[in-house]
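FAQ

Q: What does a record look like?
A: Structure on top, sequence underneath. For example:
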């Protein structure tokens, strides 16, 4: 049986069209989040309620929220949550830049991946946690307002019942959090997030490159870089596909995808 030979072109960070990459990446992530956000909101309410004081389950919560608060009720805090898209782009940028920097001091692929992955998650979570704290407080307002110690002011509740979206709600929650807990209030669960995502990202990347190398070796693929591309003063690295927070490659972004010219 004749084996096919594949010439793999690896897209370098320097070769990437940053404008298209960031804009399309944000668009794809935004679309995905808009689809799953109602279930994120339901999950949050189910997690913080006492027993079955409000909802008996996922679908019961869905219908009760829809009937009591309308479709907008399923998207409470969504506009605030979209700011976490920044953390995704920060993750990607940090990973690539740190990996390239570390490559100047070590040629060990495991070391580069581990350090870059951990640093990327540190930056991403530092941005994500404060936004999540505020958006989660907004999620449990309305019918689930009794589930949180922070309450919207009467005028904000009135605006909500009229189905008007206003950033006044966000400002009201932010002021209350700061008044009660100070800046530390915006970083509740920060350490737990770091202990979750940093090891996950730091371990995922070395394994990704390890299995990638095995695949290349088993397929008898050439790993030599294209002439005149990707190597500058011995400090460079190859771009690899990935997704924020170390949850694996994202084929939808086209990030670091392999272009194969097959010859039989």
């Amino acid at each position: 049986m004749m084996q096919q030979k594949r010439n793999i072109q690896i897209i370098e960070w320097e070769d990437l069209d940053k404008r298209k990459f960031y804009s399309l990446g944000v668009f794809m992530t935004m679309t995905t989040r808009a689809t799953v956000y109602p279930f994120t909101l339901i999950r949050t309410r189910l997690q913080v309620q006492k027993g079955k004081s409000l909802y008996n389950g996922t679908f019961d919560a869905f219908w009760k929220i829809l009937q009591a608060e309308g479709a907008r009720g399923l998207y409470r805090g969504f506009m605030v949550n979209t700011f976490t898209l920044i953390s995704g782009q920060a993750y990607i940028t940090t990973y690539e830049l740190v990996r390239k920097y570390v490559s100047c001091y070590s040629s060990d692929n495991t070391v580069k991946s581990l350090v870059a992955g951990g640093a990327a998650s540190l930056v991403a979570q530092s941005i994500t946690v404060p936004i999540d704290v505020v958006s989660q407080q907004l999620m449990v307002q309305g019918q689930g307002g009794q589930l949180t110690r922070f309450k919207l002011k009467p005028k904000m509740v009135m605006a909500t019942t009229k189905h008007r979206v206003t950033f006044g709600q966000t400002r009201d929650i932010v002021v209350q959090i700061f008044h009660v807990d100070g800046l530390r209030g915006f970083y509740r669960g920060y350490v737990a997030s770091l202990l979750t995502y940093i090891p996950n990202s730091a371990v995922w990347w070395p394994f990704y490159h390890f299995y990638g190398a095995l695949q290349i070796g088993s397929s008898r693929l050439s790993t030599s870089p294209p002439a005149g591309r990707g190597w500058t003063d011995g400090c460079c690295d190859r771009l690899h596909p990935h997704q924020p927070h170390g949850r694996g490659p994202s084929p939808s972004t086209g990030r670091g995808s392999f272009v194969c010219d097959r010859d039989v």
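Q: Is there anything notable about this one?
A: Strands lie at 5-9, 259-263.
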